[in-house]
Amino acid sequence: MRRKINDIDVSLQKGHIGMNIAFYPFWAARTLLSLIQVISITTLTCLIYKQTESIGYALLLLCVYLLAYAVAKFTFHKLIKHCIFSRLLIGIPVTKTLLLIGIASSLPYLRLHIAVMFLGAALLAIVNCWEALVLKKLQSRLMRGEDIAKASSLLSFSNYTVAGIGLVMTIIAILYLGRAQVLWAAVALSLVALALTVTVHHLTHKRSNTSISLDIRRPLHK
Predict the structure, then answer these.
(1) To pair with 13 at 20 to 30 A between CA atoms, which of 40, 91, 139, 142?
(2) Tens digit of each residue's pLDDT (9 = 90 or more) over 99-143
(3) Helices marked H in the chain — which ranges?
């Protein structure tokens, strides 16, 4: 019995049990995040262009989005130092979902106030970047050794593929369904991604507790 427990503990330390199970919802959450980013920025850019009929304003929105990304990357290190990682893992996706709901529900108001729309896009870019960085940090905890390189390659391929296909599908959806419906679709995807992130957190937390329990039960050898 003790030998079996020790074998399980070794497997946990190597990452063969629990890691693979948690990776799949993590992979889905990362992929959905890329899709949500494409949907949100494309929809807001199209909305700005329709309201102003100016390519300059649309390009300005993209510049604001990129600038907000840079600010998010600069402030993330301070954020991670002062906040508990598990709270960031759940709190940031919740904030992003609420922000998307606010933008989608107040779309008629935003059409009349371009400055508020720019502010919403900047906040959304910051939250999206923080979420991507938190998930990237979580990836290093899920993967070890050679699995990190394999997982990174798989995630990069899926993210770029989804981003490309998502851009085309978003433009088609905007033409046939409208911007409001597309934003609400982003809200629904954000809720799914949040559920997947909570699942990953539960699996990793359960795995950590199991490892600690096995360490306590392991006999001491002099």
Answers:
(1) 91
(2) 999 988 888 777 777 888 888 889 999 999 999 999 888 887 777
(3) 2-14, 19-52, 55-82, 85-105, 107-110, 114-142, 146-176, 179-217
Q: How far apart are the first and last CA of the chain?
A: 20
How far from chain centre, in Å, is Cα 77?
17
User: Which stretches does DSSP call E strand in the chain?
Assistant: none
Residue 219 per-residue DSSP state:
P
Q: How far apart are CA 55 and CA 104, in angstroms?
A: 23
For tokens 């679709």, the residue is 185
Lowest model confidence (mean pLDDT) among 70-74, 151-155, 209-213: 209-213
Neighbouring C-alpha atoms within 13 Å toward the C-beta of 174: 20
Residue 167 token pair: 């851009």
Using CB atoms within 10 A of its CB, is residue 33 exposed (0-12), middle (13-18) or buried (19+)?
buried
DSSP state of 16: -
Q: Which residue has the tokens 């934003």?
A: 183
* Residue 209: other Cβ atoms inside 10 A: 10
Phi, psi of 195 (to 5 degrees): -60, -40
CA distances in angstroms from 8 to 13, 142, 146, 210, 215, listed in the order given: 9, 17, 21, 10, 11
- Give, in order, the Cα–Cα distances in Å from 150 to each of 21, 71, 211: 16, 30, 25
Q: Is 84 helix (H, G, I), strand (E, B) or coil?
A: coil
The amino acid present at 208, given as its one-letter code, is S
